[in-house]
Structures are given as structure tokens and as C-alpha cells.
Amino acid sequence: MAKRKSKPELSGISAVSPAEAYEAAYFARKCGLTRDEALKIMREAQRSAETTVFSSAKRQKLA
After folding, report:
1. Hey, where are the domains in the chain?
2. Is the pLDDT score of 60 beyond 70?
3. What is the pLDDT of residue 1?
């Protein structure tokens, strides 16, 4: 019986959900970027949004 080959990773960035990969591919096509660049931008924006939400919640507790 032949060995099962492992699937190559779609991106250099780990743990990509199918929805995230689809969105990154769409964004890359529309903006003329690579899929990895688009995914990196999306994740940076997500981290920035999470930080902003956390900061505003912290400010509300202090007030």
C-alpha cells in the first residue's frame, strides 16, 4: 500500500480556516497582492480591532 502524502500548506502563515483563506484570496485578487500578503494584512487589522475593543472596555471599567 502506498504512503499517503501530506497536503502542502496553502500559505506560509499557519492555521488558516477555509473562510479566512477564501477571503484572503478574494482580497488578494482585488488588490493585486499575494494571498500571504492579504492574510497578513487581515490578521494585523483583526489584532488592531481586538486591542481597540479591549482598551475601550478597560476605560469603561475605570470610569
Report:
1. 18-62
2. no
3. 61
Question: Which three cell numbers mark 50?
Answer: 481586538
User: Which region holds residue 32: left if phi is over 0, alpha if psi is between -120 and 50, else beta?
Assistant: left
Answer yes or no: are the C-beta atoms of 36 and 11 closer than 8 Å: yes
CA distance 45 to 49: 6
Contact 30, 48 (CB under 8 A): no
| CB burial of residue 39 (10 Å; 0-12, 13-18, 19+) | buried
Q: What is the pLDDT of residues 12-31, one digit of tens each?
A: 556 789 999 999 999 999 99
